[in-house]
Amino acid sequence: MFSLSFFSLLTWNQDDDGLECDAFCKEKILHQFLRNVDSQLLVVRPDLNMAAFEDVTDQEMKSGNGMHFNIHYYKTTTPSAGMPVAFSIQVEDRSYYMCCEKECGKMIVRFREGEVPKEIPGESNIIFFKKTFTSCSSRAFKFECSLEQGMFLAFEEEGSLRKLILKKLSREDEVDETMKISF
User: Fold this and answer.
1) Distance between CA 19 and CA 24 in Å, rounded?
2) 81 vs 83: CA distance, rounded Å
3) Residue 122, Cβ density class (10 Å: 0-12 exposed, 13-18 middle, ≥19 buried)
C-alpha cells in the first residue's frame, strides 16, 4: 500500500498538451540544414566520429545523408538562457543525437546512436540553448551547451576541414563568426 506522502511527490500542472514537466518537454521538431558563416553545410560522419562544415553539391544535398538535421524544440518550466533545443540526424538507416561530453578535461561534441527523448527530467548533455547571433541578424544563431555556460557550437579549421567543436566565448558581448549558424 502506498502512503499519502508518495502521492504528494507526483504533482504536476495541467496544460493544453497534458502534463507539464519540471525540466524539458519536447514541443516541436523542425527539419533543417545547418550552415556556417561561409554557407557550408554541417555534415555528420559517424563512421569517422566527426562532423564538419563542407561545401556540398546540389546532388549531395538531395540525398541529404548526414545533413538533414532535426531540431527538437523543448519547453521548460524553469527560466533559461535561451530556447532549449536538441539535434538529431539520420545517417543511412540509423539515428544519432548530438551531445557535449567532457574528455581529458576538455568539452567536445559527439554524435551518439539513439533517439532524442520526449522529456528530459533535469540537466542533460543533449540540450543547447538557441540564441540570436546578434541583435541585427534574426536568421543566424549561436547554440550554448546547457551543461557548460559560455561554451558554444563553433567550427575550427583543421587542415582542409572545418570541424564542429565547442568553443568558450571569452566575453558575453563578443561576436565570434565561427559560432554563427543559420538555417
Assistant:
1) 12
2) 7
3) exposed
Series of mean pLDDT values for 10-residue runs along the chain (183 residues):
28 37 77 95 92 93 90 80 92 94 93 92 91 86 93 94 94 89 94
**Rounded CA separation 40/106 (Å):** 26
Q: At 67, list the grid cell.
A: 545533413
pTM exceeding 0.90: no
What gap in Å lies between CA 87 and CA 90, rounded to an integer? 11
3-state secondary structure string, the chain? CCCHHHHHCCCCEEECCEEECCCEEEEEEEEECCECCCCCEEEEEHHHCEEEEECCCHHHHHHCCCCCEEEEEEEECCCCCCEEEEEEEEECCEEEEEEEEEECCEEEEEEEECCCCCEECCCCCCCEEEEEEECCEEEEEEEEECCCCCEEEEEEEECCEEEEEEEECCCCCCCCHHHCEEC
